[in-house]
Design a protein that fits this description.
ABC transporter involved in vitamin B12 uptake, BtuC, two-stranded antiparallel ribbon, 4 strands, 69% helix, cell membrane, transmembrane helix, ABC_transp_permease, ABC transporter permease, transmembrane
Length: 334
């Protein structure tokens, strides 16, 4: 009589459901992340006010509003690109080139035209990036990384030394005030307002968002993916060119070496605001909030005398931490 081995017990394949964190829902909408973001912002402001006596001074607050303009403009352009599941690593170099070209042309052209040429340079670089990525189906990381080094080299070709225009009119754009608010800050806010309307209420803007969500679906719907990719990178280049001329006007000097790691600040602001680097998800308002948070952190670290390279370390850690939180949140919702 043969002995039969009992079959191994069948394991219960049902997974124990993950314990979900409590969420705040108002009017059918999950506002947990928004409320948490506001709380973190308030705590950051309180921390800055308590730990340094210079934070709430008029001079520091005005400088804070001015300093966030460069990051803000780059962040909006970066958000548009990220929504397509792309990336633009060239924005820092575009800032340098646009600034130094506009400063160099002040001696030969009227100031408004010199500034316009700087912005036009940014538009041109963004357009070329978009054409290469869309036309040849190249990876955005590779194309914009190549553009980063190429444009930086062109900035040094144009001038190896800093250029400081002598015409005081060159400084107006970057230093003018409208009441207590710096004019560049109002320009940045205007870009976010118009940009928000563009992304949410126009066919082109909605197509850019949809491309990051499902590119093939957009193509099957008869929408030109290539055209909208070119538009996205052109917008990013335009914002970088505008940021470059405003920065040069504010500090009064243009340097070919400026803008190194500015792309990291822009990406960090988008990620802090909840944008997904996988594309298709991001908010203009939340990105502006990310710009404010990042600028507050930079300002607080500067007031405490923290060296710049430690600030870069902190920004990198912030990006990693926020991405981990996003992945966990998406896993819970799934």
């Amino acid at each position: 009589m043969t002995s039969q081995t009992a079959p191994p017990p069948v394991e219960d394949e049902r997974r124990t459901p993950r314990r979900q964190l409590p969420r705040l829902v108002v009017g059918g909408r999950d506002v947990t992340s928004g409320v948490g973001f506001v709380v973190a912002l308030v705590l950051l402001v309180v921390l800055a006010a308590v730990t340094t006596e210079n934070f709430l001074t008029e001079q520091n607050l005005t400088n804070l509003l001015r300093q966030m303009v460069t990051v803000g403009l780059l962040a909006y352009g970066m958000l548009v690109v990220i929504l397509t599941a792309g990336i633009d690593l060239s924005v820092g170099s575009v800032v340098a080139f646009s600034g130094i070209v506009s400063a160099g042309l002040v001696a030969d052209l009227p100031i408004p035209l010199a500034l316009a040429v700087g912005v036009a340079a940014g538009i041109g670089f963004g357009l070329v990036n978009g054409l290469l990525i869309a036309g040849f189906d190249l990876a955005p990381f590779v194309v914009t990384l190549a553009a980063l080094t190429t444009i930086r080299g062109l900035a040094f070709v144009y001038s190896e030394v800093p250029i400081a225009p002598e015409d005081p009119g060159f400084f107006t754009l970057g230093t003018a005030l409208a009441g207590p608010i710096p004019v560049p800050t109002l320009i940045m806010i205007g870009v976010f307002v118009v940009g928000g309307i563009f992304l949410t209420r126009t066919p082109a803007g909605r197509a850019i968002v949809a491309i990051g969500g499902n590119r093939e679906t957009v193509r099957l719907a008869g929408i030109s993916v290539k055209k909208h990719l070119v538009l996205a990178y052109t917008i990013s280049g335009t914002c970088a060119g505008l940021a470059g001329v405003i920065l040069a006007s504010r500090v009064g000097i243009a340097q070919p070496s400026v803008g190194v790691a500015f792309e990291l600040d822009a990406i960090a602001a988008c990620v802090i605001g909840g944008a997904s680097l996988a594309g298709g998800r991001g908010s203009v308002r939340a990105t502006l909030g990310g710009v404010i948070v990042l600028s507050l952190i930079n300002n607080l670290l500067n007031l405490h005398g923290v060296q710049s390279f430690w600030q870069q370390v902190l920004k990198g850690l912030i990006i990693i931490a926020v991405i981990i939180v996003q992945r966990r949140s998406m896993g819970e919702r799934a």
